[in-house]
Amino acid sequence: xxxxxxxxxxxxxxxxxxxxxxxxxxxxxxxxxxxxxxxxxxxxxxxxxxxxxxxxxxxxxxxxxxxxxxxxxxxxxxxxxxxxxxxxxxxxxxxxxxxxxxxxxxxxxxxxxxxxxxxxxxxxxxxxxxxxxxxxxxxxxxxxxxxxxxxxxxxxxxxxxxxxxxxxxxxxxxxxxxxxxxxxxxxxxxxxxxxxxxxxxxxxxxxxxxxxxxxxxxxxxxxxxxxxxxxxxxxxxxxxxxxxxxxxxxxxxxxxxxxxxxxxxxxxxxxxxxxxxxxxxxxxxxxxxxxx
Length: 292
What we know:
It contains 13 helices and eight strands. By secondary structure, the chain is α/β, with parallel strands linked by helices.
């Protein structure tokens, strides 16, 4: 069974999507529609912008959505998922690819989300860091004991957790975790995503969600907050809102996909980070299963 994965912020790169635009009539039409809906030329930022330009949340998220969604569309009948999932903002792409959202609704929702996140991050001194080589529970326990807000934001893979929070608390947590970790890297992002620091934009995003028309997805969409597919539109919407302030349960999502029959993981969008994580998670799961 095929599981299709859609990446989130951090996978963007200068020039992304330009080859699609130049080689595919379908892609070009979608890119131009994206420009019209957004009210500015996101393709200029994608094709000609710098890495620093694309690092801005307001550009990164619509750019990644467009690249991923359009790539899925250009596959035609070769796009044949049995299940889908997206990492963070990629969850909206996954919903669009599963026809739970139409193209215009999805890109408008992505843009509102991105603008709100960038706006709140500009008045906060926050950040994120990836911790490699420690168990989830150890990372969480250290975060819980820090004087300040720092929390696990992404459970990406076995022994790989992203933490998120106020910079002083984040740095303190990293220093306490460093002796036991294999590697700790501060991420090039502008804020503390998937943490309480996103609370100021929850109501604004809830309004955007309620104004958006959703349909039942054609394929199961495994959501970040629960790591399982949702069986009602109301639950899909609730989980999208909760995702702003709750961790991305990516390792658990992949495990549930494997348990539900996923044998092949295909990443649609810039990069192949998620596919690498999925294969790592699947391999560990199969090894532990054999040892039982």
